[in-house]
Amino acid sequence: MQATIEHLEKIIQNYYRRMESIPEEEYARKPRPDKWSKKEIIGHLIDSAQNNIRRFIVTQYEDLPHIGYVQDPWVAFSDYQHAPSGELVVLWRLLNRQIVRILSGIGPETALRKCIMANGKEYTIEWMAADYCNHLLHHLHQVLELDPIAYP
Fold first, then answer.
1. Residues 6 or more apart from 138 whose CB is under 8 A from it?
2. What is the pLDDT of residues 50-99, one digit of tens each?
3. 3-state secondary structure of 66
4. How far apart (Å, rounded) are the C-alpha atoms in residues 53 and 10?
5. How far apart are CA 126 and CA 113, in angstroms?
6. Which residues contact 20 (CB under 8 A, 6 or more apart)?
7. Residue 105 to residues 2, 98, 102: CA-CA distances in angstroms?
8. What does residue 113 show for φ and ψ, rounded to 5 degrees?
9. Per-residue b or e along 87-119, where b marks 16 or more CB atoms closer than 10 Å to that residue's CB
10. 48 close to 138: Cβ distance less than 8 angstroms
11. CA-to-CA distance for 151 and 136, rounded, in angstroms?
């Protein structure tokens, strides 16, 4: 789990400044009416952080909690498109700092506790944390227009 925590810390450190440098108009531009803007992608990452915080905490004290997430309604109802991009970037950073704190307090046995995800499958906290980092990188590379990183 320590390697995943360190990986997340590096993601926050390496990508936060880059995200700050993107102009507001670029964040707001939608590639197509049915596609998310960069603001909405960051919003999706904020939602993902909030949902994973819940997973990482609840899975420590409940047996096999079922915690799903339906991304399109969350992004739409949160209205990220009309939020200042600077606020979104700061919120993303702060939520991820909180995830680092939560994961740092999870011991090896607890890391093996399981949660049921939206697909109905059971995953350990350790797996969810590593998957969370992969998900972050996939979308951050979209936002920053870097080489794509595949994510299932």
1. 148, 149, 150, 151
2. 999 999 999 999 999 999 899 999 999 999 999 999 999 999 999 999 99
3. strand
4. 18
5. 8
6. 86, 89
7. 10, 11, 5
8. -65, 150
9. ebbebbbebbeebeebbeebeeebbebbbbbee
10. no
11. 10
Say how many C-beta atoms besides its own lie within 10 A of residue 139's C-beta: 18
Q: How far is CA 91 from CA 33, 60, 85, 126, in A?
A: 25, 24, 10, 24
Q: Which of 69, 85, 76, 79 is nearest to 132 (CA)?
A: 69
pTM over 0.90: yes
Domains, the chain: 2-143 (1.20.120.450)
Structure tokens at 57: 């905490």
Provide the terminal-to-terminal Cα distance of the chain, rounded to the nearest Å. 21
Question: What's the one-letter identity of residue 58?
Answer: V
Residue indicated by tokens 């700061």: 90
> Which DSSP state fits 148?
P
